[in-house]
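Two proteins were folded this term; both appear here.
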Amino acid sequence: MPTCKNQVIKNNPNFHSKNKHKSGYDLDALCEVYPDLESFVFENNFQTQTIDFANPKAVKALNTALLRKHYNISFWEFPETNLCPPIPGRVDYIHHISDLFETSKIDKDISVLDIGTGASCIYPILGNAEYSWKFTASDIDDASLKHAQQIIIKNKLNEAISLILQKDKTLIFKGVLNTSDRFSASVCNPPFYKSEQEAFETTIKKLEGLKISGSKAIRNFSGTHNELWYKGGEKAFLHNYLYESSLFKQQCFWYTTLVSKKELVKGMHASLKKLGATEIKTINMGQGNKLSRIVAWTFLTQVEQENW
C-alpha cells in the first residue's frame, strides 16, 4: 500500500484572503442592489447598521443581496422551510478547494461533484461564479432539486451545472458516480445532527446568545430533516462517505467534506489509511468566532496525480 501523507493546514482565525466578505458588509450597497433587504436593516445600540440574525427572513434577504451584488445571481428562491446557507462561510470552502487544486496543479477542465446540494444549490453557483468550474450536484430530495433547477435556469447556468437525484437515501456515491466519471473534487456539507431534537437544541443554544427564546425560537428554526440530521449523526454520515469514496478511487482526484466536530478528524484519518488513501489533508478554517475544517483525501498514486 502506498505511503499516506498527513498534513494539517492552519489558517488565521478569519476568512480566506480571497473571500469578498472578510471585511464585513456594506449594507447600503446591498440594499441598493436588493431593496427588499432595506426593511430588515436597523441601527443597534452601538449606532451601527445591522440586521436581526435571529430572523430567517432577514438572513435570507442579506444572503440574496450578497449573491446579487458579488456573484451575479439574480434569482435565488426556495421555500422558507429549507436551510438558508450563509454565503461568506460557503464561499470560503470554495476558495480552499481552489487552493487545493493549485497545489495539485489541477488547472483545466475542472469539474466538481456536490453531494447534498439542497434547494439553494449554493456550492455550484458560488464555484461557477468565482472560478467558472462545472458542477454535478446530487440530492436525495426531489423537491429540493426542482427548486435548485429553477435557480440554474433563471441564472442561465444550464451548461455549467447539472443535477442528479440520489434515489437511495442510504447511499452517497453509489448511484451517483459511474466508473467513467472524472471529477476534480467532491464537496459536501453533511448533516451534523442525529435527530430533530438535537438540531433544535443546538439552535436554541445559539439563539440564547442573541437573547431569543421560547416560541420565537421555534418559529426561527429552519432547515429540513434531510439537510440537518442523519441517523447516527455526523459520525455515521462521514463513515459512509469515506467508505463509499473508497469504492470509486479513480473517479475523484480529491474527495472533501466539511467536518463540524474536531474530535472526529483523528478517526477519519485512521479509517482513510485503512481504506487506501495516499494523501490526507486537514484544512482548518477560521470564520469569526467559529472554527471549522475541511478533510480532503485522494486515493491516487503520485504518478496518477501527475497524469490526471
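Next, the second protein.
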Amino acid sequence: MTVTTKALEKKFPKHVAIIMDGNGRWSEKKGKHRVFGHKHGVKALRKAIVFASEHKIEALTIFAFSSENWRRPKEEVNMLMELFFTVLGREVKKLHKNNISLKIIGDVSAFSDRLQKKISNAEALTENNTGLAVNVAANYGGRWDITNATQQIAKQVKDGTLAIDDIDESLVNNSLSLAEFSDIDLMIRTGGDYRISNFLLWQLAYAELYFTDVLWPDFNADTFQLAVDVFSGKERRFGQTSAQVSS
C-alpha cells in the first residue's frame, strides 16, 4: 500500500486556546503558597508560546484572569495583578525579539492606570510583528464579550448607521474581541475540570476540546503535542457528512 505525503502530514491547528488551570492546587500539593504556583505557571506559558511559535501555529489565546476571578481572596488578586505587571515588563521584549505580537482582550478598564499603560505599551511595541499572535484574556468573560458586541451593534442601529436586517453572524463576529482572528480550532484545559468556564463562548463553537489532568505548572511541549495529536486524529465536519469532507 502506498502512503501519500499528505497522509503523513501532521495536521496542526491554526488557532489554539488554553485555559491555564491548576496553579493553586499545584502549590498546595507542594505545601507552598498559591503565589508559588502562579509564578511557575508563567514558566509553563513560556513553554507553550515557544511550542506554538516553533510549530507555526498562527494564534494562541490564553485565559489568564476571568471576570469572575475578582471573587478570589483580595491578597491573591493583588498578587496576580502585580505578577501580570511584572511579566508584561519582563517578557514583552522577548516576544518582540521573536516577532511575536501581544494583545490583551477583556475589560482592561478595571485595571490600575499603571497596568493599563503597561498593556498599551506592550501592544504598541509588538503590533506589527508577523509571527505568532499571543492573545491574553484578562478580566475577560465570554458573556461579557458577546454583550459588549451587542451593545456596539445596538448603538449603530440607534444612530441610524446600521439597519436591523443587516445584523448577521459575520457582523457579530466582527464586533468581538478576536474579530481579526479565525475561530478556535483546539481548546486545551489543564487541571482536570471538564468545562469551558465562560471562555470564548462564540469562538469555541466548532473547536475540538482537549481536557487533561496535568496541572498548569507541569504543562510542557509533550503535553501540548499530545493535545495536537488528538486534534490531528479528529475529522472536522462542520455540519457536513464524512463523505462530503473526504471528497
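The domain at 10-234 is CATH 3.40.1180.10 (Undecaprenyl pyrophosphate synthetase). The chain is about 45% helix and 15% strand. These notes refer to the second protein only.
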